[in-house]
Structure formats: structure tokens, C-alpha cells
Amino acid sequence: MQSRDSNKALSIASLAALAAALALSVPFVERLIAAIWQWYKFAGYSDAGYITLSLKTGLLFSGLLAATFGSALWFNQLAKRRAAPRARSLSFLAMWIAAAVLAAYWLLGMSGFNVWRA
């Protein structure tokens, strides 16, 4: 019974990590849509549109994504040891989403669509 309860708690924690990764993807998606809109709106002009990202906010955002990735990785390792396949798949998905959003954010930041602000 204790193993079943702990697997359920691990599944809930993995679901929370997935929810956090999805919630953290929302600001990135918003900035990506803004960049696409600016590019579309100013296509063909000599001074194409751009978005602004804050370096300090980016570092905070990256820290939150890294914490989400780390907790999901920890839940994934626990799920492997306890043979909890649902928790393992949820935490694995959370890890991939967090890593993809982090990489995509910094790629957007380095692109020509962005101008950094302090």
C-alpha cells in the first residue's frame, strides 16, 4: 500500500513539473508570436521590426526553467527506481519541454528579431 501511495504522489509531483514547464513556455510563445508579427508587419522595410527581451528577466526565466528541469529529472530518476511508468513519462516530457523552451528562448534572443534591453 505504501508503494502505491508513493507512486501516486510521485505521479502528482511529475504532473506538477509538467504543468510548470508548460506554464513557463507561455511567455516564450508570446514573445515568439510578437517576433513573427513584427517581422510580418515590417517585411520589406529598411528597418525591420524587432522585439525586446530583458537580459535580467532572461536569466531569471532560465533559472526557473533549470529548476523545473532539475526537479523533473529527479522525479524521473525516482520513478525509474520505483517502477512508476506514468510518473516517468510525465517527468520525461517535462524535462524535454523545459530544455526545448530554454534553448528556443536563447536562440530567439540571439536572432535578428531581438534587441536586448538592460
List keywords for this structure.
about 120 residues; single chain
Distance between the termini: 54 Å
Mean pLDDT: 89
Strand content: 5-15%
Number of helical regions: 3
Task: Name the poorly predicted regions.
Answer: none
Number of strands: 2
Shape: elongated
Strand order of the largest sheet: 1-2
Q: Give me the secondary-structure category.
A: mainly alpha
Major pleated sheet: 2 strands, parallel
> H/E series, N to C?
HEHHE
What can you tell me about this protein's structure?
The chain has 118 residues and is mainly α. Helix content is 80%, strand content 7%. A two-stranded parallel sheet has the order 1-2. The mean pLDDT is 89.
Quick gist of this model?
The protein is mainly alpha-helical and 118 residues long. The chain is 80% helix and 7% strand.
Topology readout:
Layout lengths: L1 H40 L9 E4 H28 L2 H26 L3 E4 L1
Parallel strand pairs: 1-2
